[in-house]
Design a protein that fits this description.
- The complex is a heterotrimer of chains A (about 325), B (about 300) and C (about 325).
- Chain A is an alpha/beta fold.
- Chain A is built from 13 helices and twelve strands.
- Chain A has two domains: about 5-230, 3-Layer(aba) Sandwich (Rossmann fold), CATH 3.40.50.300; about 230-335, no CATH class.
- In chain A, a hairpin with a 2-residue loop joins strand 9 and strand 10.
- By secondary structure, chain B is mainly α.
- Helix content of chain B is about 80%, strand content about 0%.
- Chain B has helices at about 1-30, 35-40, 45-55, 65-75, 90-125, 130-145, 145-160, 175-205, 205-215, 220-255, 260-270, 275-300, 305.
- In chain B, helix 5 runs antiparallel to helix 10, helix 7 crosses helix 10 (about 220-255) and helix 8 runs antiparallel to helix 10.
- Chain C has helices at about 15-20, 25-35, 40-50, 55-70, 75, 110-145, 145-160, 165-175, 180-190, 190-205, 210-215, 220-260, 270-275, 285-310.
- Chain C is an all-alpha fold.
- The radius of gyration of chain C is 23 Å and the shape is elongated.
- The longest helix of chain C is centred in the last third of the chain and has 38 residues, at about 220-260.
- Chain C has one domain (about 45-85, about 95-315): MetI-like (MetI-like fold, Orthogonal Bundle).
- The chains are: A alpha/beta (about 325), B mainly alpha (about 300), C mainly alpha (about 325).
- Chains in contact: A-B, A-C, B-C.
- At the B-C interface, helix 1, helix 6, helix 7, helix 8 and helix 10 of B face helix 7, helix 8, helix 12 and helix 14 of C.
Chain lengths: ~325, ~300, ~325
């Protein structure tokens, strides 16, 4: 593994709401190296997007508060950095694309203008060359007739084209890191595949590090190098794709895998969903947050929060008191 | 776009047609004898001169014919003749419209400048001291009727402090300050509230997050991306509120003895000079309808989604 | 004038609690608020939110006081409102005459108290009239659609083209001054917004799934309208009506102030302000107290309207 480009260390982001303190991110660490793809997987409400938004400095403070942690990028701590410094990084060195490309683009400005805007925000470049670069980028992300399309408004684009435009905007300045928050969730299945292919191609050309945030384990399996599984604001498991998919050490990961339709699985097997609902982040169960839904749960799980510890090798971490038993109960794919 | 403008134009013609019927009915179904009234009490007219006046004001024709004649005259810009001044209403309006327009423009400028700025500040610094101040003062301002605001301003700034003239237009530029604030006050508050609401909602939109993610400064995000989206409902409101502005102008001109068409209208109501009343009302309705057409069209320029419908 | 633009898109009441706080910074706030929010019964929820709104409760008390003054005028007033006392003209406020006396020696406090009767009568009656016309036409327009819709909405456009005060003046011109003409004039120039609001509300609700469900179960048109569509579309109309009462009270005072409202001898706030203006600068209590009465009443209704709006649609806070 090469030196990490961006690393999040023991990050805690809590939202202070009227109803109570929401521990959206509660002691999470991850890192991503140049050219690498890290998948962050979790159910909605697991806090998986918040750490990425924290990297961008887009978590609204208040109600949010950074309780602890560092976000290191090129040796600097972004949490400690001032707004001017962070603004220079946003969109240029680290950029982000979002789930719904319709609402993520401003409806009253032309698509080409919105792309040119990010270029002009960071480079001393005139309006006309910036516009030309925007057209070029639209072509690069596979939008036919880009010159004309650049003059259109977002609502004139289809869902897939809007996400392509978002990608063009995010990659306009060749950022080192791209945070992709559910980039394909709002799209049709066939379009999903096209968008992922586009991201992989652009990543190969530019050596961009990608953090792929999704609830879709299948998407991560196909495109990520390493995967981080989050549950109730904490890391449940972290490891390479092979580690996590073939030797899961956390019952939650196991549950996710069991509820996944897999090409390599015998068709007679039935999908097994995880029983129960993810917990309220205001009232996280004591001990291991997963214990109410966990088939392995014992008294120790109800009492002590499990530490995130190496299993099998130094790069495969899991936070489970009964990681050894999980190994015994293999996922169907490995049997 | 062209289609949209044409459709709105047709709609406007329809509205003006409907309004003209209402006004015509009001003009000619008014009970009593306007001719006798206009002569003043105790002033008897003989039959011949009564008929002559009736002919002069087309009061002797059957109603449908009168309506056709009425619309025909309207289209030529003829609003009839004042009973008491014996002069064309159009001339009277032309003499006084400048003063009213000055007042209205000053008020609109105040509404836009103060209302929008206050609304933006309140939305951007939500729940801060400034927001509470804006919210509180606008809440109170909305409840205070125009004439009360006018009287209170006169009392403080003219009678007690002697900073500004009490009424009239003799003092030159200074004399418009109090009337303009009076006329604008309620709308400043409403625009500020509306702007605060629209801006707060827009600031939560995904595209605002995108704009920040691009590395744009807060100023650009708010003054460009957010403002352009949140100004649309405010603009619609300014169009609608133009009617209230005309009503408010009546009151403001009365309070400040401002020699505009509002004051002429109020005087005419008291003298039962119906042609002036209806002429001014007709004029007001037409201006209101045209202003709303302009607002709707500029609205389409601001929001590309409307343009294509 | 307080003509409040109906900017809120009506939200079907059932969804309210679920949508609370949605939007936010996308995922962040969703993830934070989805939890722990239960859907409660609709009416209880609205009532609870209304009474938690401090200003709304204050408004309710203010409106209550005005109603009390109107109903119990003869008890509260210290003198008959038209009783002249030429030995005590233009008296400054004192313990004998709390709000002073006018040039005919009439007790201003008693006239202000009696003035609440005109304000309340005109405010309520004109809006009830506007509601009767507006709700009927809006419901027909929204539910029957087609030709009805076109005719009613174009008619609404015509009435909309008259600014409230100016339209009212035309009616007063035809009918003469008085309480009834004022009520009618304000009513017929206020229904258009109500009809429009209700129509758009109905259009969004009649396509809702529960209406579809009722239809598929064979419920008749009339039953669907009265039992399902109307109750659910009325929320924005009620909020608007509450604020319109304030608008109507201001308009009435303004009309009387301009000499186009109720008869000049009637104890009415607009009349009193107009009459008091003659002594502007040295007998300011003459216009001050009736002005404050208008402000007090109008603010009361606006606060109640605001509270009602927030209670019915908390997303707008």
């Amino acid at each position: 593994m090469t030196e990490p480009l961006l690393s999040v260390e023991d990050l805690r982001v809590h939202f202070h709401t009227d109803a109570g303190v929401v521990k959206a991110v509660d002691g999470v660490s991850w890192s991503v190296a140049p050219g690498e793809t890290l998948g962050i997987v979790g159910e909605s409400g697991s806090g998986k997007s918040v750490s990425a938004l924290a990297v961008m400095g887009l978590v609204p403070v208040p109600p949010a508060r950074y309780e602890s942690g560092r976000i290191l990028f090129k040796g600097r701590d972004l949490i400690a950095a001032d707004e001017k410094e962070r603004r220079a990084i946003r969109g240029k060195e680290i950029s982000m694309i979002f789930q719904d490309p319709l609402t993520a683009l401003n409806p009253v400005f032309r698509v080409g203008h919105q792309i040119a805007e990010v270029i002009q925000a960071h480079e001393k470049i005139g309006r006309i060359p910036a516009r030309a670069k925007a057209v070029e980028l639209l072509g690069e992300v596979g939008i036919p007739n880009p010159r004309q399309r650049a003059r259109e408004y977002p609502h004139q684009f289809s869902g897939g084209m809007r996400q392509r435009a978002m990608i063009a905007m995010a990659l306009a300045l060749d950022p080192l890191v791209l945070l992709a928050d559910e980039p394909t969730t709002a799209l049709d299945v066939t379009v999903q595949a096209q968008i992922m292919d586009l991201l992989i191609r652009l990543q190969a050309d530019r050596g961009t590090a990608i953090v792929l945030i999704t609830h879709d384990l299948g998407l991560v399996a196909g495109h990520a190098d390493r995967v981080l599984v989050m549950y109730a604001g904490k890391v449940a498991e972290l490891g390479t794709i092979d580690d996590v998919y073939y030797r899961p050490r956390h019952p939650y990961t196991l549950g996710l895998l069991n509820s996944l339709a897999r090409m390599d699985q015998r068709r007679t097997d039935r999908l097994r969903p995880i029983i129960g609902q993810p917990p309220s982040l205001i009232r996280v169960p004591p001990g291991c947050a997963f214990h109410p839904r966990c088939p392995f749960a014992t008294d120790v799980c109800r009492r002590d929060v499990p530490a995130l510890e190496p299993k099998d090798g130094p790069d495969h971490l899991a936070a489970c008191h009964h990681a050894d038993q999980v190994e015994l109960q293999q996922s169907p794919a490995a049997s | 776009m062209g289609k949209y403008v044409v459709r709105r134009l047709l709609q406007m013609v329809l509205v003006l047609f409907g309004a003209s019927i209402i006004l015509f009915l009001a003009l000619f179904v008014i009970p009593g004898d306007p001719i006798a009234t206009s002569q003043g009490e105790g002033h008897q007219l003989d039959k011949a001169s009564h008929d002559a006046i009736a002919r002069r004001y087309h009061l002797d024709q059957p109603l449908p014919q009168q309506y056709v004649g009425y619309v025909g005259r309207l289209l030529k810009g003829d609003l009839g003749e004042s009973y008491s001044y014996r002069r064309p209403v159009t001339t009277i309006i032309r003499e006084k419209i400048g003063n009213t327009a000055k007042l209205a423009v000053a008020a609109i400028v105040l509404e836009i400048a103060l209302g929008i700025i206050a609304g933006i500040i309140a939305a951007v610094f939500r729940y801060s001291f400034l927001d509470v101040l804006v919210t509180l003062s606008t809440t109170v301002a909305i409840g205070v009727p125009t004439f009360v605001i006018g009287l209170a301003l006169q009392n403080v700034f003219a009678v007690n402090l002697h900073w500004l003239p009490l009424q009239g237009q003799q003092a030159g530029r200074e004399s418009i300050i109090l009337p303009a604030i009076t006329l604008a006050a309620v709308n400043i508050a409403l625009v500020a509230r509306l702007m605060r609401g629209a801006m707060s909602e827009v600031l939560r939109a995904d595209y605002i997050r995108t704009a920040y993610a691009k590395g744009l400064s807060k100023r650009v995000v708010i003054m460009k991306h957010a403002l352009r989206n949140s100004i649309i409902p405010v603009l619609t409101y300014l169009g609608i509120s133009f009617g209230a502005l005309l009503g408010g102008a009546l009151i403001t001109e009365t309070v400040f003895n401002w020699n505009g068409i509002g004051l002429a209208l109020v005087g005419a109501i008291q003298q039962q000079d119906n042609p002036i009343v209806l002429g001014v009302v007709t004029y007001g309705v037409a201006v209101f309808v045209v202003v709303n057409l302009i607002v709707d069209i500029s609205y389409a320029f601001l929001d590309p989604r409307i343009r294509l419908e | 004038m307080t003509e409040v633009a109906p900017t809120q898109s009506p939200a079907p009441a059932g969804e309210i609690t679920l949508e609370a706080g949605a939007g936010g910074f996308g995922n962040v706030e969703n993830e934070a608020t989805v939890l722990g929010i239960r859907q409660q019964t609709q009416f209880g929820d609205v009532r609870r939110r209304f009474f938690r709104h401090k200003l709304a409760v204050v408004g309710l008390v203010m409106v209550g006081l005005v109603f009390l003054a109107a109903i119990a005028s003869p008890v509260i007033a210290t003198r008959p409102p038209k009783a002249q006392d030429l030995t005590n003209t233009l008296q400054e406020p004192s313990s004998a005459h709390w709000f002073g006396t006018d040039e005919l020696g009439r007790d201003q406090f008693s006239r202000v108290i009696y003035g609440s009767r005109i304000a309340v009568t005109v405010g309520l009656a004109s809006i009830i009239l506007a509601l009767v016309i507006g709700v009927t036409l809006g419901a027909v327009s929204g539910y029957l659609g087609r030709g009805w819709d076109a005719v009613i909405m174009r008619t609404a456009d015509v009435f909309f083209a008259f600014p409230l005060i100016i339209g009212a003046i035309v009616v007063i011109l035809v009918m003469g001054r008085g309480v009834t003409p004022v009520v009618i004039s304000l009513g017929i120039f206020s229904w258009a917004t109500i009809a429009r609001l209700l129509r758009s509300s109905i259009l969004s609700i009649r396509e809702a799934e529960y209406v579809e469900a009722a239809r598929s179960l064979g419920a008749g048109k009339w039953r669907i309208v009265t039992r399902h569509v109307l109750p659910n579309s009325m929320a924005p109309v009620l909020v608007y009506a509450m604020v319109s009462v304030a608008t109507a009270i201001v308009a009435e005072a303004a009309l009387s102030y301009l000499g186009a409202g109720v008869q000049p001898d009637v104890p009415d706030w607009g009349n009193m302000i107009s009459a008091g203006q003659k002594f502007f600068g040295f007998k300011d209590y003459l216009w001050f107290f009736p002005s404050m009465a208008v402000v007090f009443t109008v603010l009361g209704f606006i606060f109640v309207g605001d509270g009602l709006r927030d209670a019915l649609d908390p997303r707008l806070r």
